[in-house]
Specification:
89 residues; mainly alpha
Length: 89
Amino acid sequence: KSPRDAFKVANGMKQEKGALMDPLTELSMSKSVELFTEGIPAVIIQVAAAVFRGGSTQMELFSLAVSIVTCGFTSAQISYDFDTDPTKR
């Protein structure tokens, strides 16, 4: 779904007749849902596993760092998309 929404946003497509929201809002909503249902819970599970086990390997810490950076990047990207859209300012 996200690649199709990103294509619509990149090509400047307008809201289709009968659609509930414009392509930028739809893309941002799908990113937000993915972030809150997949990204953040994954970080919480990884932190809990590290704490309850009493330590982590370097690979586990690397995986945790990648998950945190990915969540931060996705969040920043949602904000940037709205900040740079003239109709959403």
